[in-house]
Amino acid sequence: MARKEEARYVCSACGHVALSLLGRCSRCGAWGSFERERIPGSGTSLRVPRRDGSGILRKSQAGAVLLRDVSSGGRISSGLDEMDRVLGGGWMPGGVTLLAGEPGIGKSTLLLQICGAMAEAGKRVLYVSGEESLSQVAERARRLGAVSEEMELVASDDPSLFLDGVEQYALVVVDSVQSMRSAEVETWPGTPTQIRAVAQSCIDAAKGTNVPLVLVGHVTKDGQIAGPKLLEHMVDTVLSFSGEHASSHRLLRASKNRFGATDELGVFEMAQKGLLPVADPGRVFWSGLQDDVSGVARTVVLEGTRPFVAEVQALACQTPYPYPKRTTRGVELNRAQLLLAVLEKRCGLSSRNSDVFVNVAGGLQIRDPAADLALCAALASSMLDRALEGRCCFLGEVGLAGEVRPCGRVAGRLREAARLGFTRALVSRREAKDLECEMEVVRVGSLTETLRAVLP
Q: If you write DSSP's letter for every residue of 68-94 in order, what string do you get?
């Protein structure tokens, strides 16, 4: 005899599960975020695969096949080189991709352009909109020039209406997963239960038909993907589309990719006719100005296989308050505080009575440790109010002992710096001796030696 259905409550912000309704989530602190979710009674019989004496699923029941009999399908190009770079070569057949970003950043524009490019190449695509009408989507597609006979539009919030027959398409886009409503779940769209049910049905359809599928996801005010964290585990690839609203540049990154690397960066520029791939991304995050201003240093960071020139800006000024302020953008706050401590301990430059502000021009987020030397040089330049040479770049990681450590692929970084007009570079003394470069290379072993070379 089956028991009656029980219920639990799931936080729509972080996915925390509680057995009773709570006003405030104990994990993330959100108010009024719990949604009721029904659980089938424990009396329901479950079909569990039988195991043999060793505890392993039987071959016939598990559906096991030989590895050599499994064919790996080739990737499908998205029509945009920047998207293919981040994906690792294109869409993987049967792969499910989650594309997330802030409202108005250009997610729908990017996907419409991809659908239009693939349709022009003769591939049949399907764009499903759960938030806009067909006329609204068609108007945007005409403005972007993404009009083709191979592109089909559907305006629906019911996955069962468009998942049947997806095997005839080369790509399916669902915009967005938070707007879809599964008839099997009696909750509002956007709740954790609905998102899991809709995502699972889309994943099953993609895996069963070997058709790549893209889910558009919303983000919260904290920048996290809305819905349960389980959603990111369910999909194969998680892409984040970001950028400053005041800037025309947009950045595409992969935080998860089962079929490729996650360190590549795609750069787009928002223009009147949509998102355009940037021809020379090396100049995106660098103004090109060579004016000697205190607190400004340049470095070359790697985003995947691409070198980018980054401009690190620092400003240190006296504060009348007992607790100085530390603010960073583009650099981790803890990293900046650590390097300030190294400057004080190893170089005698104290910032205890100064507010310190750090910024990376262009909105770039630096995770490359090779930018440590440039950040230390910018901080020291601002604290001493003495400008650094404009055509000089800094490449190296700084340790707690004040030593300058080598960075990876320094030869490619130096070539990119020389191409953009730099004439001098400071690198670690422990770098390879045979660095072929068209610029002056100064080898330093410590942070103190670096400051003596650039701030005599």
A: GGPPPPPPB--S-HHHHHHHTSSBPTT
Residue 150 pLDDT more than 90?
A: yes
Cα 113 to Cα 107: distance, rounded to the nearest angstrom = 10
What is the strand order of the sheet 440-444 is part of?
A: 326-329, 354-360, 306-318, 296-303, 392-394, 424-428, 440-444
Cα–Cα distance between 97 and 214 in angstroms, integer? 5
- The radius of gyration of the chain from alpha carbons, rounded to an integer in Å, stands at 27
Contact assessment for residue 31 and residue 23, using Cβ atoms and an 8 Å cutoff: yes
Domains of the chain, residue spans:
1-44, 75-279, 296-454
CATH fold of the domain at 75-279:
Rossmann fold (3.40.50)
- Strand duo 125-129 + 171-175: pairing: parallel
Residue with tokens 């997963």: 177
Which helix (H) or strand (E) is 276 found in, with range? Answer: strand 274-277
What number of CA atoms fall less than 13 Å from residue 234's CA on the CB side? Answer: 22
Phi-psi map region of 261: left, alpha, beta (phi>0 left; psi -120 to 50 alpha):
beta
Cβ–Cβ under 8 Å, residues 262 and 236 = no
Pairing verdict, β 306-318 and 249-257: unpaired
- The model's pLDDT over 196-243, given as tens digits with 9 standing for 90+, comes to 999 999 999 999 999 999 999 998 877 888 878 889 999 999 999 998
d(CA 245, CA 230): 29
The two tokens of residue 294 are: 């205190």
Topology agreement, domain 75-279 and domain 296-454: no
Name the burial class of residue 165, with classes exposed (0-12), middle (13-18) and buried (19+) by CB atoms within 10 angstroms of its CB. Answer: exposed
Closest CA to 452 of 417, 407, 404, 405: 404
This prediction has a pTM of 0.80
Closest CA to 160 of 180, 188, 131: 180
DSSP string, 78-139: -S-HHHHHHHTSSBPTT-EEEEEE-TTSSHHHHHHHHHHHHHHTT--EEEEESSS-HHHHHH
Tokens 């080598």, residue located: 406
CATH of 296-454, one of 3.30.365.10, 3.30.230.10, 1.10.3520.10, 3.30.300.130: 3.30.230.10
* CA–CA gap between residue 14 and residue 32 (Å, rounded): 12
Average pLDDT over residues 133-147: 93
Contact call for residues 212 and 91 (beta carbons, < 8 A): yes
pLDDT at 83: 95
Q: DSSP states of 318-351 as a string?
A: E-SSSS--EEEESS-HHHHHHHHHHHHHHH----
